[in-house]
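Quick illustration, no need to memorize.
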Amino acid sequence: MAVKNDILATRKLSIGYKGKNRPAVVAGELNLFLKKGELVGLLGPNGSGKSTLIRTLARMQRPLNGRILLEGSDLASLPMKEVAKKVSTVLTDRIRIGNLTVYNLIAFGRSPYTGMMGKLREEDREIVHWAIEATGLQRFVERDILKLSDGERQKVMIARALAQDTPVILLDEPTAHLDLPNRVEIIRLLRKLARDTGKAILMSTHELDLALKASDQVWLMDRETDIRCGTPEDLVLNGSFEEVFQQESFDFDRKTGSFKIHQNCGRQITLSGDEVSKYWTTRALEREGFIVQEVDTEGKVQALNKDGELIWKVGNAPALSSVEALIQRLRSGG
C-alpha cells in the first residue's frame, strides 16, 4: 500500500511487449514504490527487463496491465506535458548532435515550462544555473557538447534532467561507457542529489558493487518475471542476490558483495594475517584456483605487516615481499 512519501507507485503492473498471438510478459504483478529523497538501484542480469521497466515508468512504453500512480494520479490519464513536469528520463543513447553548447542542452530541460517559443524566463534561468552548479559543470557551459568526455556528457544529461525539475528522475544505465572514476562520481552525485533535493531517483545499472554501497533501496529483477525489493543488505543476507545471479561459472559472495569465479584447482590453503592483507591475498589465491580457508591461528600462508612493511610467509621458508612472489612460490609447489 502506498504511503505519504511515495511519489511513484505501481499496482499489479505487468510490463513487456505485445506479440502476434499473446503478450511477452517481462515482469508481472509488480507493486513498487519510489519515495522522496531515495536513490533506488534497479539491478538484474541482462535480459531481465530493466530497460523495459524504466521506459514503462517513463510512459515511453505502454504497460500490458496494471496501473502506475504518479503523486496519486494515474500516469496513463495525465497529459504528456504534465508527465514531463513530473518525470525526467536519462537514457543510454549517446549524444551525436554538434553545434550545441552545454548550456543550451541543459536549458532544454525547461521546455515543459517555456511553451512553443522556448524563451527562458528569469525563473527558468535560475533553475538552469542551479542544475549546472549542482553537477559541477560551470566551466563547461559554453563548450560544444561533442567536445566533452563521456563522463562529462553524462553529467550534462543529468543536469538537463535536474533543470526539468521533476520529483522523479529515471536513469537507464547512467554509468554505461564510463571509466571507473567517472562511474563512481556519477553514482556519488546521484546519491547526493537525492539527499539534497528530495527527488526520487531510480537508476538501472550493472555496477553491482557501487549500487550496493550507494542505494537506499534495491529493486532486484530476475528472469522469472519477478522483482525483489529491499535494502541492499537485506537482499544480500537473505540470499536473493545469490539466487538471481546464480551461474555455473561464478558465485555471489555475501561477505564481500562481489562475484567469485569458479576456477578451483582443488588445492587448499590456510591463510592468516590482518584483515586487509588477507582480503587481497585471498583474491589473488582464488584467482589462481586455490581454495582458501582463512584462520585466526597461524596458517600455511601468513600475510604479515612487519614494521610497516608487508611480507608473506609460506611455512618455514624465507619471507616474500609481494603477492606475485607468493603466487610463484605456490605454483612451484611451495
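The two ends are 61 Å apart (CA to CA).
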